[in-house]
Amino acid sequence: IRSFAKNVLRRSRPVGLQIRTNYIGLKAPNFSAEACMPDNTFKSISLSDYAGKPVVMYFYPADFTFVCSSEVPGYSQLNAEFEKEGAQLIGVSMDTVHVHKAWKNAPSELGGLSGFDVNHPIIGDASGEVSDLFDVRMDDGEGLPCRAVFLIDEDGTVMAEHRNADPIGRNTKEALRMLQALHEHKKTGKVIPADWTPGGDTMETSTESVDEYLKKLKSK
Prior knowledge:
- This protein is α/β, with parallel strands linked by helices and 220 residues long.
- It contains seven helices and seven strands.
């Protein structure tokens, strides 16, 4: 049904209007793709390999580029925190796994990441298949992935997604905060207000709880 509806919308949309997929609340599409692993070996991985645990999956435009050279180490430095939350971190770009390996081992003078522990799989989505499944490719003539991140829960449901344009780097810590917020919600059944961090106030789904929360907010 989703595929049929999307095709109908594409046929009827005004020229130049791109219809985007929104996976919030839906199952993330499964895939199999070759990845450059933390030890620089190559391995075929699938989203289904991580069934039963949350997945934080981020896309970026290309290796040996500029903002990307800040984001991949940023996510890597947070990986111990993701693992503490029981989550699997996965990166994706449309470079080959061989380019990923070269980038990870090249010195910073050549735009590489040597000296950083890239401690999670980076998918070599050279065909663009995974990027197409998640609908993250930019309409800029090159068709590279935008800076997208997806939070997928242990049941395979997409609980959050975020996209940035190429020039704007992400706050890598926000993906961790969203994961922690999701776990707080699942543990307590409460909803998570704006700017929440672990240990902060949560809310019941009631007017009384909103009133209590806003009064605390005003007094800060």
